[in-house]
TrEMBL record:
Domain Aminotransferase class I/classII large span(s) in chain numbering: 26-349
List of residues that carry N6-(pyridoxal phosphate)lysine: K213
Protein species of origin: Pandoraea faecigallinarum
InterPro entries in UniProt: Aminotrans_II_pyridoxalP_BS, Aminotransferase_I/II_large, HisP_aminotrans, HistidinolP_aminotransfase, PyrdxlP-dep_Trfase, PyrdxlP-dep_Trfase_major, PyrdxlP-dep_Trfase_small
Recorded GO MF terms: histidinol-phosphate transaminase activity; pyridoxal phosphate binding
Family: Belongs to the class-II pyridoxal-phosphate-dependent aminotransferase family. Histidinol-phosphate aminotransferase subfamily.
Quaternary context: Homodimer.
Enzyme Commission number: 2.6.1.9
Entry cofactors: pyridoxal 5'-phosphate
Protein name, UniProt field: Histidinol-phosphate aminotransferase
Biological process, per Gene Ontology: L-histidine biosynthetic process
């Protein structure tokens, strides 16, 4: 702590991102990155954006990212005015907390969820209330049908991977007409159904997505929100009061290409889902309980083996998975779905650790 810090900084509890180790020959299954590279059209678009032009990077990019917004709007049957973009969905969510979720009443989100939510609440002074997941780690919509300052949750939830059905989402929206409902769909493309089709019916709905997972662009930081123009205007006001140029020229070009290459997107996401299902079967055969997942990861525990010790034993074999310290999930591991070879290496290592 320093005497030069602003008031409140010492009270912040920063987000701890997944480890990015520098180990050699590492099987990295801890941060839910896509095991497949981005669309070849993305790389071509980046090269074209440079185009050998010496002036290409000395000029500021389009502050409104109009081409990127148009690509997103076209995909979802919306208008660019329904789209807000940012430097990864983390920045988009930061704008959401600041622009839409700071009210007199506390916001609601699950007790087990994306750990950036309490960080943003602390940073922006947003009151919140944790709503417990059920005993089977599902969202209980009835628990959210009460006065609140807004609602936010991932769908599928993180780190559980469990998905809330579209009918339940609509019941939640209808039951909270005076609150913004933010659905964080970082993993929706791996088997869930997006709520984007409900935007025209519910002006209180905001859907947030990222290109880090299903579009394999975690390294470029591209995220967006879609919703009613009144919600988007609030986010644009926050963005333009903080950073008018959140997306660089190359990221915008890459984002358009990634969104427009539907065939590659569908091919790779289906490959991940197939690997997830096969990995689930192999883990269950080893005695693990695997929660039903519609994400690019699985959330598992073993009745006879401590999760932290399993994670440490895998690390000794150069395989990194994620272990969380939250009391309710301390015996779970979150395992990213890798390539088929990586998933096989994981289960082979677990067989050795478990003595099977």
């Amino acid at each position: 702590m320093s005497k030069f810090w602003s008031a409140g900084v010492a009270d912040l509890t920063p987000y701890v991102p997944g480890e990015q180790p520098q180990m050699q020959r590492l099987i990295k299954l801890n941060t839910n990155e896509n095991p497949y590279g981005p669309s070849p059209r993305v790389l071509a678009a980046i090269r074209e954006a440079l185009g050998g032009d010496a002036d290409a990077l000395k000029r500021y990019p389009d502050p409104d990212a109009r081409c990127f917004k148009q690509a997103i709007a076209t995909r979802f049957g919306l208008e660019p005015a329904n789209v807000h973009v940012g430097n990864g969905s983390d920045e988009v969510l930061a704008n959401v907390f600041q622009g839409l979720l700071k009210h007199d009443r506390p916001i609601l989100y699950p007790d087990i969820t994306y750990s950036f939510y309490p960080v943003y609440c602390g940073l922006y002074g947003v009151a919140f209330e944790n709503v417990p997941l059920t005993d089977t780690f599902e969202i209980d919509v009835d628990a959210y049908l009460k006065p609140n300052g807004g609602i936010i949750f991932p769908n599928p939830n993180a780190p559980t991977g469990r998905v809330l059905a579209s009918g339940e989402i609509e019941r939640l929206l209808a039951g909270n007409p005076d609150s913004v409902v933010v659905i964080d769909e970082a993993y929706i493309d791996f088997g869930g159904e997006t709520a984007a089709g409900l935007i025209a019916k519910y002006p209180n709905l905001l859907v947030v997505q990222t290109l880090s997972k299903s579009r394999s662009l975690a390294g470029l930081r591209l995220g967006f929100a879609i919703g009613h123009t009144d919600l988007i205007e609030a986010l644009e006001r926050v963005k333009n009061s903080f950073n008018s140029y959140p997306l660089d020229r190359l990221a915008q070009a890459a984002g358009v290409a990634a969104i427009e290459d539907e065939a590659y997107f569908d091919e790779t996401r289906r490959a991940v889902m197939a690997s997830r299902d096969a990995l689930t079967a192999r883990l269950e055969a080893l005695g693990f309980e695997v929660l039903p997942s519609k994400a690019n990861f699985v959330f598992v525990r073993h009745a006879s083996h401590d999760a932290a010790r399993l994670a440490a034993a895998l690390r000794e074999r150069s395989i990194i998975v994620r272990h969380f310290g939250h009391a309710r999930i301390a015996q779970f591991l979150r395992i990213t779905v890798g390539t088929n070879d990586e998933c096989m290496a994981l289960t082979d290592a677990l067989k050795a650790v478990l003595g099977q």
